[in-house]
Amino acid sequence: MFMTWISRTYAPLTTPAWIPDWxxxxxxxxxxxxxxxxxxxxxxxxxxxxxxxxxxxxxxxxRPAVQLILVTVALRQTVRGVVETDQVLSVVDRAxxxxxxxxxxxxxxxxxGTFFVELRKRFDTTAEDNLRARRATTxxxxxxxxxxxxxxxxxxxxxxxTIPGVRQYGASLLASAGxxxxxxxxxxxxxxxxxxxxxxxxxxxxxxxxxxxxIDGEWGWIxxxxxxxxxxxxxxxxxxxxxxxxxxxxxxxxxxxSSSSIIGTVYLNxxxxxDVAALRREQTRLLAASEYWDGDVDVVQVVDTTERxxxxxxxxxxxxxxxxxxxxxxxxxxxxxWVRQHYPDALPRERLRVKGTIQA
Length: 360
Hints:
Blueprint: H1 2-9, H2 21-46, H3 49-82, H4 86-120, H5 131-161, H6 167-175, H7 177-187, H8 189-204, E1 212-215, E2 218-225, E3 229-234, E4 239-243, H9 244-249, E5 253-254, E6 262-270, H10 276-289, E7 293-305, E8 310-318, H11 321-342
Helix pairs in contact: 2-3, 3-4, 4-5, 5-6, 5-8, 10-11
C-alpha cells in the first residue's frame, strides 16, 4: 500500500533527451540522501541546547535506516520510469517492499533503543546514594529487552508478509500468537520460565543493578540483568552468570536491598586478660580517623567464649559495600596492631601446667 501511494504521488519527471537514463536514475536518490544529510545537520543546530545531544544521538543511530528507506523508494520510482523490462520491474517491485520493511523495522528498533539509552542517562548508578537509580535502571533494562523483542518479531512478520510466496506465514505469525505461544512454550519451557522470571524480577525487584549480593558463597555486585540470566561481578573481577529462574528458587543475600549503607563485622579471638573497654576506645579512635566510616555504627561486644579465648565482635558501618570491606580490613589490622603493642599477653596462647620437677 505504501509503495502504491508513492507510485501515484511521485511520477517520473520529464527530462531532456540528451541526459542518460542512468543519470536520471541517480538524481532522485542522490537528492533525497543529500537533503536528509542537510536536514540532519541543521536539526541539532535549531534544537534547544539541553536537547541537542539527544537529537544528535537519534540522528546518528537512525541515519542508516532512514537512508535505506529513502534510497529504496527513490530508486524504485526512478527505475519504473526508465526501465521497460518486465523482469527487471518484477524484481524491483518485489525487492523494494522487503528493503523498505527492513529499514522501517531497523528504524523502529533503533528509536526504541535510543529512547531507553536517553532514559538511563537520567539515573546515575555511580552516585553515593544510588538506590533509586539502581531500581529505575533495572526496570529500564528489562523493559528495553522486552520491547526490543516485540519489535523484532513484528518486523519479521511484516517482512514475511511482503513476500507473496510466504505471506501467509507472516500473517500466521501475528494472528496465531496463542498457538505459537503454546508450541514454543512446550518446546522451550526453561527459556520461557527464565523470561517470565526476568519480568517478575523487574516488577518485584529483589535485586537491582549494582546491588551487593552473596550467591552460592560468591560475593559481588549485580552487573547485568537480562530476561534469562544475571551477571554478578565478583570482588576478584570474575563474572558469575546465574540463570534468573535460579534466583527465584534459591535464597541469596542482598546487602543493599533497602539501602546502600551496610554494617561490617570484625571478629577477634583474644585472651581473657584483655581490657575490652580499652579496645572499645581504640576502635572509636580508629573509626574517627578512617575515611571509610560513615559515622553511624561503632560497637564492640564479647559475643562468645571458648576454653582458651573470648570472641570479640566489632561492628562498623560504611556508606556502601566496597567501603565497608575496606573499613573492615582497616579496623581488623588496627585492632590487632594495638593488642600486640599494648596487651601482648592477650594474644591467643596455649596454657600448660607442668607438675613435678625435672631430675638431672
